[in-house]
Design a protein that fits this description.
single chain; alpha/beta; Rossmann fold; four-stranded mixed beta sheet; 30% strand; binds glutamine
Length: 248
């Protein structure tokens, strides 16, 4: 049986709005294709985590307090995460996780949390805690060479700047900053986004894109995931897109 490995970082601290559901969805959609997704965890204090052996490294979102709590431990993982990223492991990060892999996050208390510095972007939050980007969001992203509407929910004070290659174009909602035209950060093996949801339950095509990337990388042959019954997911998407974009 084919096998993929996912590392879930700080599942006990970074899990807003069902973010851990992204791991469940990947496991489920892998299983539908006969792939066993083995999930391991990294929590604060772990010293023997194998980053380079991972196909996917995943970080969910978290409040400023949780981000502060784990920042030092995350910095101690910098070499391992960087090596995995450079070897082509897929990095999936939501909101607080997205922010912490950039240069820094200046939080709503005015405290600077040093990021891993893997990417150039940085994030600044207003010290007025009421100033937040909150609500449903739809973006258009390029998934496997095709435009795809990615649906989610955002709730962040942080405004992310200097994003060179955004994940998508905002169709409804805020994105990287208040009323921004762009959302998230993307590379061939990176998706970093403000979209909670969980992201992958609302956007099955993105989930399959990550699985395809990992299987293709492992086998060296183009992997096309077999079609599965997404009738319910597609019906939910239609309702949400109609509600948020007025699309029929
Ligand atoms: N604490 C960060 C912010 O408010 C991230 C929040 C989140 O992960 N939803 O910007």
């Amino acid at each position: 049986m084919a096998e993929l490995k996912l590392l879930h970082m700080y599942p006990n601290l970074l899990d807003l709005y069902g973010d851990s559901g992204n791991v469940e969805i990947l496991k489920y959609r892998c299983a539908l294709r006969g792939i066993d997704l083995k999930v391991s965890r990294h929590i604060i204090g772990d010293r023997d985590t194998d980053f380079e052996g991972m196909d996917i490294i995943y970080l969910g979102g978290g409040a400023d307090l949780e981000q502060q709590m784990l920042a030092e431990d995350l910095l101690s993982c910098a070499d391992g995460i960087k090596a995995a990223y450079e070897k082509g492991s897929f990095l999936l990060m939501i909101c607080g996780g997205y922010q912490l892999l950039g240069q820094y996050y200046l939080d709503s208390n005015g405290e600077k949390i040093k990021g891993l510095g893997l990417f150039d972007y940085y994030t600044v939050a207003s010290t007025d805690k009421r100033k937040r980007c909150i609500g449903n969001i739809v973006i258009e992203a390029d998934i496997g060479g095709e435009p795809y509407k990615v649906i989610g929910f955002e709730n962040h004070g942080g405004q992310t700047k200097a994003v060179k290659t955004p994940f998508g174009r905002v169709l409804a909602g805020n994105g990287n900053e208040f009323s921004s035209s762009t959302e998230g950060y993307m590379e061939k093996n990176v998706v970093a986004t403000y979209l909670h949801g969980p992201l992958l339950s609302k956007n099955p095509k993105l989930s399959d894109h990550i699985i395809s990337y990992c299987m293709t990388r492992q086998t060296g042959e183009e992997f096309t995931p077999s079609a599965v019954n997404d009738k319910l997911e597609e019906e939910c998407r239609e309702v949400l897109l109609e509600r948020l974009l007025g699309e029929k």
